[in-house]
Amino acid sequence: MTSTPTSMPDVTLEPAWQIARLFPPQGHWSAGAYLSFTESLNQLVELVDGRIEVPEMPTKSHQKIVHYLLNLVLTFLADHRLGDAVAAPYRMRLRSETYREPDIAVYLANHLDRFGERSGGPADMVVEVVSGDEARRVRDYEDKRRDYAIAGITEYWIVDPAEQRILVLTLDGDGYAIHGQYPPGDEAESKVLLGFRVPVTETFQAGLDQRAANP
């Protein structure tokens, strides 16, 4: 009698559970464990009330819009000696066991002590460029709006290529009020950075045309 060979499971498709078990379960990540873990990654990772969130890697058009806006912000800050700014990846601690990585974080001169070398405290102004699936949109419009307000961040910009709109929110009590909604043809303006304006049309063109990213 011949025996039928037994097929072996393809163990290469199994997750590396032994490695996963080295880390805390969701809801039990400490700030220390999060910082240790993310030091070795080339990946955006956020910590929200002890839970790890891994946003999608940004697209080229997303990054070109971020770079265009960061260039405008840094130029304005330098010209007026108002502070400094940085683009993601840069960890920003909002509260115990919660770190976010906004696309752009702006620190005014009197709060540069919060702008640490490896991570920072709450910025004065943050910018998020919306991209990805519906879950990413909910995170930017709802989850981060709540987290940034709780942290006392004075101004929050939501730059939405799909809606062709820049939404500027300013802190009002424990939540945000709409400072302005700006479509193409308008200039979005800041309340925190008086005199700072961003041309909406050129912002979204920056995601398509490399020449627009160098004003």
Describe this structure in words.
The protein is of the alpha+beta class. The protein folds into 2 domains: 11-53, no CATH class; 60-213, tt1808, chain A (Alpha-Beta Complex). The chain is 27% helix and 27% strand. It contains 5 helices and 13 strands. Helix 3 (60-80) packs across helix 5 (200-206). Mean pLDDT is 86; it is low at 1-6 and 211-215.
Number of domains: 2
Q: What does the largest sheet look like?
A: 6 strands, mixed
Element order: H for helix, E for strand:
HHEEHEEEEEEHEEEEEH
Q: Might you state the CATH topology name of the largest domain?
A: tt1808, chain A
Give the DSSP E fraction (strand runs of 2 or more residues).
25-35%
Briefly, what CATH class of the largest domain?
Alpha Beta
Low-confidence stretches: 1-6, 211-215
Distance between the termini: 80 Å
Mean pLDDT rating:
86
Lateral arrangement of strands in the main beta sheet: 3-6-8-9-10-11
Question: Could you say what the CATH architecture of the largest domain is?
Answer: Alpha-Beta Complex
Q: What Rg do the Cα atoms give?
A: 21 Å
Shape: globular
Structural class: alpha+beta
- Share of residues in helices: 25-40%
Question: How would you summarize what this structure contains?
Answer:
Helix content is 27%, strand content 27%.
What features would you highlight for this structure?
single chain; 13 strands; alpha+beta; tt1808, chain A; 2 domains; disordered C terminus; three-stranded mixed beta sheet; disordered N terminus; about 25% helix; about 220 residues; globular
Secondary structure blueprint with pairings:
Blueprint: H1 17-20, H2 31-38, E1 46-48, E2 51-53, H3 60-80, E3 83-87, E4 91-95, E5 98-100, E6 104-108, E7 119-120, E8 125-129, H4 134-150, E9 155-160, E10 165-172, E11 175-182, E12 187-189, E13 197-199, H5 200-206
Parallel strand pairs: 4-7, 8-9
Antiparallel strand pairs: 1-2, 3-6, 4-5, 6-8, 9-10, 10-11, 12-13
Helix pairs in contact: 3-5
